[in-house]
């Protein structure tokens, strides 16, 4: 039986419910969001003469939640247009609408009795065969539906999203004993391919996988902190990136999550386990006191940290758990942290950090990691079938770079188990037996195969066919050619990928060289059908290497700079006029030069989380590698053919995008801003991006791809130049732009208007490129621009001068 989810309903519109509805709307699934009917009127409603019978009053809770999506940061929606797909209502009047949806997700308050009432109503109104799920983070999935119909039980399971649903990758799927295996398989596939999630199957136990181990790890950390007499900031300084965890480490993470939420999650386990494990889930006294004080974290502007305004601007202070005063933050710096910081990769960092016995940081981190490893090992089989599910859940739900069993492999099973036993720990028997083997490991990686331990056997990890992993691919096939900036790799089926791998994926001459080589190689070899420009670093590309450019400018090497910009422009033209299709696959930051590599491609396949923009103005420049021209042309191509349109309007829009260094906050917004057009594709699952880009190359090749012909560009000329300057001058007079901003705007207007020529003239592409390059070179010679570049390099944020 084939299932399709074309429409969905979300019951409950709190932060989580509205976040899930937003995620569904972002990917194009129309969603009904219902909440309860308010029990009383607001003062405003009374004043307007409304009663509890009015529809706008009855739908108020869901309506306000929908409105709140616009204000939340980071934004749960990829575009304001997503809101059009969310219909609101209430759970008294609108339950019959459930008969029209294919998937119903319950996100109401975490109380079993209330959930059972909701599901009794759902059972009455749903259509047979529709899928029903609960987003509970810890109530028994079996217990919720024990009184429901057979058909509903067969189509029911837990689907636990992590907050915020748009950004966090993990989706825990929890079947009951009644769940039809076909439904489970469908939902796992749907979760990956359509919702874009990393899906892990969990068992119906308190808090499932990630929250069970994550909460335990956090509480261990707090207890060890109190024992070692360390401060909150000292703990954060050694439990973040140093051990492969997010920058928000321990306590900043808790401030974001909210202390009240954390306490609820911990209490949920506390009530359902016994003995020593129960003791571990007791909330420390000072945290209960914080909750009583209402110091819950970011939402109350006060938690483990508080941001205060002092004489030197704003400062972040940390809470002293003994005195309950906020104090300046401290770091924990020891010989072990220094040594670990110099290691490459999280595994080596952790191994180095924990092995310096007697060092304050080393002993603390070992005391935190050790119990978490043992606890994870005890729970295999109880909370999940295998170690892979536990490792993936921790990586995707908590942002760890390595799961507990990967960490165990990295630090060495034999040595660590010996140390644990010497310290009197009770290590699970299966781990003790594993440690006795010659070469014990939880994972074995050969060429392109990953195997993980299940019982005494190794089982091959099965990957979704859409998941291309460049590291595994290179291990198997090697590379065609590489230099320090990029590698050319065979994606099979006649498609190559050019992968950037310089520092921060910044573009230098080495990357430019490789792009040119790749296009030539693909063009000359009949076996190749096209090229993808993509990679799997932290960001697609953060632009040209401004450090190198600043050095050249300060040394007055303008001849060199001119040559570099020329080469960049030629490379962009090679991408555009390649005989075979080039598809760019941007994700995360694709700014400055990263956008200039994206814009000229035959097509773009962008990750939903691609943040594209021409940001050169932030460092006192304008795009010099063809970005100004290509954004202008891309927006012109989107204009209706054969109809008259206002050329000035298009020019103004491009001028505004570049002059304000606007960066799209999603691929959908990039389309609205003109960086992508309607032919460009968007991938919801970032792991499928290269596969989707490869398919795009193949479909263009199959359709008989022809390189574009060189075209003349219509420009607004003198009159348009004056119009743009007028706008910029207005910004300066109202205090939004400095004199130097105005100088940059003037150069940009000059390029976009085609130089001082008659309006509605046509110019060659090369003319606009030359104008771009001249403007770039004259600006980089300006002391104020050099100050901006320096500031960006040192502080990582733009200087307004």
Low-pLDDT residue spans: none
Strand order within the widest beta sheet = 3-2-1-4-5-6-7-8
Strand content: 5-15%
Largest sheet: 8 strands, mixed
Distance between the termini: 64 Å
Please, how many helices?
Answer: 34
Give the overall shape.
globular
- DSSP helix fraction: 40-55%
What is the number of E strands? 25
Radius of gyration: 29 Å
In short:
With 801 residues, this protein is of the alpha/beta class. The chain contains 34 helices and 25 strands.
Task: Describe this structure as you would to a colleague.
The chain is an alpha/beta fold and about 800 residues long. The mean pLDDT is about 95.
Please supply descriptive tags for the structure shown above.
single chain; 801 residues; alpha/beta; eight-stranded mixed sheet; seven-stranded mixed sheet; 34 helices
How are the elements arranged and paired?
Layout: E1 8-11, H1 15-26, E2 31-35, H2 43-47, H3 55-58, H4 60-68, E3 86-90, E4 103-106, H5 112-125, E5 131-134, H6 141-144, H7 150-154, E6 156-161, E7 170-175, H8 181-193, E8 198-201, H9 210-228, H10 232-238, H11 251-257, H12 259-272, H13 275-280, H14 285-293, E9 305-310, E10 313-319, E11 326-328, H15 335-341, H16 346-354, H17 360-379, H18 387-398, H19 404-411, H20 413-422, H21 429-435, E12 443-446, E13 449-454, E14 457-460, H22 470-477, E15 481-482, E16 486-490, E17 495-500, H23 509-524, E18 530-533, H24 546-554, H25 558-577, E19 582-584, E20 588-591, H26 593-598, E21 603-607, E22 610-613, H27 627-637, H28 647-659, H29 667-673, E23 681-683, H30 689-702, E24 712-715, H31 717-733, H32 739-752, E25 761-764, H33 765-780, H34 783-795
Parallel strand pairs: 1-2, 1-4, 2-3, 4-5, 5-6, 7-8, 17-18, 18-19, 19-21, 20-22, 21-23
Antiparallel strand pairs: 6-7, 9-10, 10-11, 12-13, 13-14, 15-16, 16-17, 24-25
Helix pairs in contact: 9-12, 9-17, 9-18, 15-16, 16-19, 17-19, 20-21, 23-25, 24-34, 25-33, 27-28, 28-32, 31-32, 32-33
């Amino acid at each position: 039986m084939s299932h399709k989810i074309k429409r969905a309903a979300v019951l409950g519109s709190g932060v989580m419910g509205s976040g899930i509805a937003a995620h569904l709307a972002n990917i194009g699934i129309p969603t009904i969001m219902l909440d309860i009917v308010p029990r009383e009127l607001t003062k405003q409603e009374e004043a307007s003469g409304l009663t509890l019978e009015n529809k706008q009053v009855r739908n108020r809770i869901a309506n306000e939640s929908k409105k709140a999506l616009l204000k939340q940061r980071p934004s749960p929606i990829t575009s304001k247009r997503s809101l059009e797909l969310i219909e609101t209502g209430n759970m008294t009047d609108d339950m019959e609408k459930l008969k029209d949806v294919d998937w119903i997700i319950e996100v109401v308050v975490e109380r079993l009795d209330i959930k059972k009432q909701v599901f009794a109503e759902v059972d009455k109104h749903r259509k047979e065969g529709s899928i029903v799920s609960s987003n509970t983070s810890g109530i028994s999935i079996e217990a919720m539906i024990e009184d429901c119909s057979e058909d509903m039980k067969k189509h029911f399971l837990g689907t636990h999203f992590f907050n915020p649903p748009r950004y966090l990758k993990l989706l825990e799927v929890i079947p009951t004993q009644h769940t039809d295996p076909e439904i489970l398989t469908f939902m796992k596939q749907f979760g990956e391919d359509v919702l874009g999630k990393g899906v892990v199957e969990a068992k119906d136990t308190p808090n499932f996988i990630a929250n069970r181990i994550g909460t335990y790890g956090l509480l261990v950390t707090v207890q060890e902190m109190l024992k070692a007499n360390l401060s909150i900031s000292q703990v954060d300084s050694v439990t973040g990136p140093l051990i492969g965890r997010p920058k928000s480490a321990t306590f900043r993470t808790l401030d974001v999550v909210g202390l009240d939420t954390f306490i609820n999650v911990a209490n949920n386990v506390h009530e359902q386990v016994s003995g020593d494990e129960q003791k571990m889930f007791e909330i420390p006294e000072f945290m209960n006191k914080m909750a009583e004080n209402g110091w819950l974290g970011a939402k109350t502007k006060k938690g483990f940290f508080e941001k205060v305004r002092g004489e030197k601007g704003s400062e972040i202070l940390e809470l002293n758990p003994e005195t309950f005063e906020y104090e300046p933050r401290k770091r924990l710096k020891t010989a072990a942290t220094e040594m670990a910081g110099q290691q490459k990769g999280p595994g080596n960092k952790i191994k180095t950090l924990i092995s310096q016995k007697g060092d304050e940081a080393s002993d603390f981190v070992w005391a935190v990691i050790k119990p978490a490893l043992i606890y994870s090992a005890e729970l295999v089989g109880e909370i999940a079938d295998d170690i892979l599910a536990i490792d993936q859940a921790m990586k995707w739900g908590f942002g760890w770079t390595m799961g507990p069993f990967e960490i165990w492999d990295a630090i060495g099973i034999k040595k660590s188990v010996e140390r644990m036993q010497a310290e009197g720990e009770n290590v699970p028997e299966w781990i003790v037996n594993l440690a006795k083997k010659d070469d014990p490991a939880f994972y074995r990686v050969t060429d392109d195969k990953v195997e993980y331990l299940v019982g005494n056997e190794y089982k091959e990890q099965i990957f979704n066919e859409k998941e291309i992993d460049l590291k595994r691919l290179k291990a198997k096939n090697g590379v065609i050619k590489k230099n320090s900036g990029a590698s050319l790799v065979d994606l099979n089926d006649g498609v190559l990928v050019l992968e950037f791998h310089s520092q921060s994926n910044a573009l230098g001459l080495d990357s430019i060289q490789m792009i040119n080589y790749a296009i030539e190689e693909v063009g000359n070899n009949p076996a190749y059908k096209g090229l993808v420009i993509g990679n799997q670093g932290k960001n697609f590309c953060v632009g040209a290497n401004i450090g190198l450019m600043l050095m050249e400018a300060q040394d007055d090497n303008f001849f060199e700079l001119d040559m570099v910009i020329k080469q960049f422009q030629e490379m962009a033209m090679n991408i555009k006029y390649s005989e075979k299709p080039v598809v760019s696959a941007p994700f995360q930051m694709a700014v400055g030069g990263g956008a200039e590599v994206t814009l000229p491609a035959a097509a773009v396949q962008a990750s939903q989380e691609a943040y594209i923009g021409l940001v050169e103005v932030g460092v006192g420049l304008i795009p010099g590698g063809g970005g100004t021209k290509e954004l202008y042309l891309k927006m012109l191509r989107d204009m209706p053919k054969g109809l008259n349109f206002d050329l000035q309007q298009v020019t103004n829009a491009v001028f505004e995008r570049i002059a304000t260094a606007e960066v799209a906050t999603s691929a959908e917004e990039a389309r609205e801003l003109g960086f992508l057009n309607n032919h460009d594709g968007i991938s919801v699952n970032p792991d499928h991006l290269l596969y989707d880009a490869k398919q795009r190359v193949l479909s263009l090749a199959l359709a008989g791809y022809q390189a574009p012909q060189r075209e003349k560009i219509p420009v607004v000329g003198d009159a348009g130049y004056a119009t743009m300057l007028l706008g910029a001058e207005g910004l300066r007079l109202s205090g939004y732009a400095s004199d130097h901003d105005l100088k940059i705007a003037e150069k940009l207007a000059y390029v976009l208007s085609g130089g001082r020529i008659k309006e509605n003239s046509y110019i060659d592409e090369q003319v606009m490129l030359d104008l771009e390059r001249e403007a770039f070179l004259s600006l980089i010679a300006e002391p104020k621009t050099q100050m901006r570049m320096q500031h960006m390099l040192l502080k990582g944020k733009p200087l307004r001068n």
